[in-house]
Amino acid sequence: MDMSVDGLGIARSGDLVVFVKGMIKGEEADVRIIAEKHNYSAGIIETLLKPSPYRIKSDCPIAYKCGGCDYRHVSYEYQLQLKKEVLENTLKGYEVLDIVKDEDPYYYRNKVQIPVRNGKMGFYRRNSNDIVEFDDCLIESKIANRIIARLKETLKEEKDADHLRHIVIKHAEETDEVMVAFVTDSFAADLSHSTDLLIKEFPQIRSIILNLNDEKTNVILGKEERLLYGREYIYDEYDGIRVKLSLKSFYQVNHSQMKKLYAGIAELAGNDPRTKILDLYCGIGSISLYLARNAGQVCGVEIVKEAEENAGDNARINGIDNAEFVLADASRNMDEYLKDRDLVVVDPPRKGISTDLIASIIRSDVKRVIYVSCNPATLKRDLDLLKDSFEIGKIRPYDMFPYTVHCECLVILSRKNPQEDSV
Fold first, then answer.
1. Structure pTM?
2. N or C: which end of the chain has fewer CB within 10 A?
3. CA–CA separation, 112 vs 148, rounded Å?
4. CA–CA distance, 58 with 104 (Å, rounded to integer)
5. Which strand (E) or helix (H) includes residue 6?
6. Which domains does the chain have, with CATH numbers?
7. How far apart are CA 250 and CA 304, in angstroms?
8. Are 80 and 399 in contact (CB under 8 A)?
9. What is the per-residue burial (b if ≥16 Cβ within 10 Å, else e) of 354-385?
């Protein structure tokens, strides 16, 4: 009995492999097969015969139905052990350190995206488009829970509520500022009743936005938006840095763990005022600005226009004049940007970094690369492509997403033979 990368128990009977939802490594159970594929089956627990000593009673009434959490039935300390084992299996050949735990793994998500359909608001059931409603989500911020609860009531009185596709809420933990976005299929949707009530009842709200997405796609946000109240952004702070967050800009969802991760990045980067850093996939510049305080010069590259503009504003807000930001695609044509850089930081999306960028890094004179990854599978792929030119350091995992199978990894790569590898 083992665990899969997505938190399912892996049971075996002869040559038959069965993935069982809710089953923990080491348990024994009578399992009912509910789906058969070519080389595996899916099952559910019929009778639990031998429970794991790490099994706990779930504190969420919809955990088994909802696709948000994977481990509400597993003690937190054992979750960390399971995650490390999965990382070690995925990242074979590289050393994985113990996971940096979250000291308070509840109500940590500062961004939530709630689908709305046929009068229902909630999260998608795993592997389906069915909406599972909830009263109190234990991983999203408390104020987001309160706003969602209020919207469940107010939207019943909105004649245009049928145009609503998603609700997006961002909560800046240190400033307590909140952004609410209504994602609709029409700019003509009138949600003024809900808007007025939210403004009145939640003084933390600094921004309410109507975002238009009228395409049949699984992408949540559309390209156009209209401001309904306040500003087009909110502010947050971390370790003395103040940042502006727009609707489309990326920001780590766990504020306390983000600060630990950034401290780890800074430790690996070192404290040399001569260092020239290139920060790829820089978002709103949160890592760039953090590192600029102990570096000579930082250049951030970001493809999302709103985020790149936020990054430039954030440098000015903090009086940081040794950081600049450019609007470009970090996955291609980076040779010029890599010239004369001592250190490159990459924090890509789940798909990892492109082969084009990897080739550019190998061709460059860059001595060190700091890689931040939210997907161990693509991290392994990319490290394998870089390991001939770089020594791979120990991988430091951070539990950015407690009660889920996901983890954030940090690793530094050091050039093996700088003069031989550069061209």
1. 0.93
2. C
3. 10
4. 17
5. none
6. 2-55 (2.40.50.140), 111-238 (2.40.50.1070), 254-421 (3.40.50.150)
7. 9
8. yes
9. beebbebbbebebbbbbbbbbbbebbbbbbeb
Helices (H) and strands (E) in the chain, counts: 10, 23
Question: In 91-173, which residue ranges form alpha helices assigned H by DSSP?
Answer: 142-154
Pair 232, 293: CB distance under 8 Å: no
Is 315 in contact with 293 (CB distance < 8 Å)? no
Tens digit of pLDDT for each residue in 166-210?
999 999 999 999 999 999 999 999 999 999 999 999 999 999 999
| Beta strands 178-184 and 205-212, pairing class | parallel
Task: State residue 238 phi and psi, 5-degree precision.
Answer: -155, 130
Active site residues: 374
18-30 confidence digits (pLDDT tens): 999 999 999 999 9
Query: Which token pair is 272?
Result: 């040399």
Task: Name residues whose C-beta falls within 8 Å of residue 200's C-beta, 6 or more positions apart in sequence.
Answer: none
Specify the 3-state DSSP secondary structure of 41.
Answer: strand
* Strand ranges (E), 111-250: 111-117, 120-121, 123-124, 131-132, 164-171, 178-184, 205-212, 224-230, 233-238, 241-246
